[in-house]
Design brief:
3 strands, alpha+beta, elongated
């Protein structure tokens, strides 16, 4: 997927996944690739700055969990503000996608 297109949609993608349940970074990377059947591949170098920005905006909230074995993991969960932002982004995306569908299908505007 084009880098610019991915950059413009990654907030919505991550918020959507976190609307289902809290996840840690690697889970999010794997979920994006699985759910999009590989159409969107996201590395940590791309995803973590987005998660940090979402955290700063109050859209996600982190918590640390340390298992008995292994390294501590930072889990992210969607906040109420994040849920509102997700709704806004989805509405914006759907309006854009519908417009693109009309354009690509050759739909003419009556004059």
């Amino acid at each position: 997927m084009d880098r610019e297109l991915k950059r413009g949609t990654l907030d919505m993608v991550l918020l959507r996944l976190l609307s289902e349940r809290e996840m840690y970074g690697y889970e999010l990377v794997a979920a994006v690739e699985e759910r999009t059947r590989g159409a969107i591949e996201v590395g940590g170098g791309t995803m973590y700055p987005v998660l940090y920005r979402l955290e700063q905006a109050g859209h996600v909230e982190p918590r640390w969990e340390t298992p008995e074995r292994g390294a501590a993991r930072k889990y992210y969960r969607l906040t109420a503000e994040g849920a509102r932002e997700l709704e806004r982004l989805v509405a914006e995306w759907r309006a854009f996608a519908q417009g693109m569908d009309r354009l690509l299908d050759g739909e003419k505007v009556p004059r």
